[in-house]
TrEMBL record:
Protein name: HTH lacI-type domain-containing protein
SUPFAM superfamilies to which the protein is assigned, alphabetical: lambda repressor-like DNA-binding domains, Periplasmic binding protein-like I
Keyword Acyltransferase appears in the UniProt entry: no
MF (Gene Ontology): DNA-binding transcription factor activity; transcription cis-regulatory region binding
Length: 345
């Protein structure tokens, strides 16, 4: 009978021979779940363990707990983030996995270091939420544990994250809204939102601009506010931008419902009617503002996102050697009266 080799075990599990070797030589860098799976498979295949081999799963005492960290900036800024976190916690509890909240600053100094809990070996995986600071993302990408990011900064290539990236579909849905506005005869359309802040923001602008181009139009820089905008000064900066316009455009496509509702407040304050004078759309399906009830938006499914984040980090822990993934969660465009469609009864 052919002697079972490390490569045989690796091939049967779809992992690298190096990972199997790490387990049998007592090296670090392999999750507890994958370590148990390798030892169990080796036993089932009849592998001849050396005397110094690790204990088999059947010989072990209770397995150590698995700890997943949710590393998040400003979760209190919107119920949007809390809903995702709650779904992550709910799903991980089904798998008997501990969820650890790790709050990160929105901006950091050059000498900043990650919290010890993320890099001291007690955390087996990290889910990164609402983190868009370039330096902080780079520090997280260097952490020697499996990672899953929900969105990332535009300037950070997904290939440099050293982890999986989950995004909500943005380009197609914004394209649908833009086309809807164009078919109403609205030709002068502006875009409001910092497109360099997040990859999802950039993809929304991409859907907007490409749709204009399909209709033989070009995005008008003078009608759009797409540069850097302070997190806490959106309303003031949008107000100042509106004051620079020689005439109001026919519509604004906004990067989020938060931005759209701020814009609507400012337009109404100027005595303009929505959508008769100016149509407005948002993104997120966020109902925190009363104005959102009439807002055309793109519904983001927080529960699906939270579930996918939880399952993806568990998969990444189990399969650390598989290639990283970019995953899109579908969204749904919802047309309401802010773009000229009467509200449904």
């Amino acid at each position: 009978m052919k002697k079972v080799t490390l490569q045989d075990i690796a091939s049967s599990l779809g992992i690298s021979r190096t990972t199997v070797w790490k387990v049998f030589s007592g090296q670090k860098g392999v999750s507890d779940n994958l370590r148990r799976k390798i030892l169990t498979t080796a036993q089932e295949m009849g592998y001849e363990f050396p005397e110094c081999a690790p204990l088999l799963p059947s010989q072990k005492t209770a397995a150590p707990p698995v700890n997943i960290a949710v590393a998040v900036c400003r979760p209190e800024s919107s119920i949007f983030w809390m809903n995702i976190i709650h779904q992550i916690a709910k799903e991980l509890s089904f798998h008997n996995v501990n969820l650890v909240y790790t709050y990160l600053p929105s901006s950091i100094d050059e000498d900043y270091t990650l919290p010890a809990s993320l890099v001291n070996g007690n955390t087996h995986g990290i889910i990164v939420l609402n983190v868009y600071n370039n330096q902080l993302i780079r520090l997280l990408s260097e952490a020697p544990v499996p990672k899953v990011f929900l969105d990332t900064a535009t300037s950070i290539p997904p290939s440099s994250l050293n982890g999986d990236l989950i995004l909500m579909e943005s380009s197609i849905s914004i394209s649908e809204i833009t086309e809807h506005l164009l078919k109403q005869g609205r030709k002068k359309i502006g875009f409001i939102g910092d497109i360099n802040y997040a990859q999802s923001n950039y993809e929304r602008y991409e859907g907007f601009s490409k749709t204009l181009e399909r209709y033989g139009l070009s995005p008008s820089p003078e009608l759009s506010l797409t540069g850097s905008i302070g997190t806490d000064t959106y309303k003031e900066e949008i107000d100042a931008f509106l004051n620079t316009l020689p005439s109001m455009p026919d519509a604004f496509v906004c990067v989020s419902d938060y931005v759209a509702c701020l814009l609507m407040q400012l337009l109404l304050k100027r005595g303009l009617k929505i959508p008769e004078d100016v149509a407005v759309s948002g993104f997120d399906g966020n109902m925190e503002s009363p104005l959102a009830e009439d807002l055309t938006t793109v519904q983001v499914f927080n529960q699906d996102i939270g579930l996918r984040l939880a399952l993806q980090i568990l998969y990444r822990i189990e399969h650390p050697d598989t290639r990283s993934e970019i995953i899109y969660i579908s969204t749904q465009t919802i047309f309401r009266s802010s773009t000229g469609i009467a509200k449904k009864a």
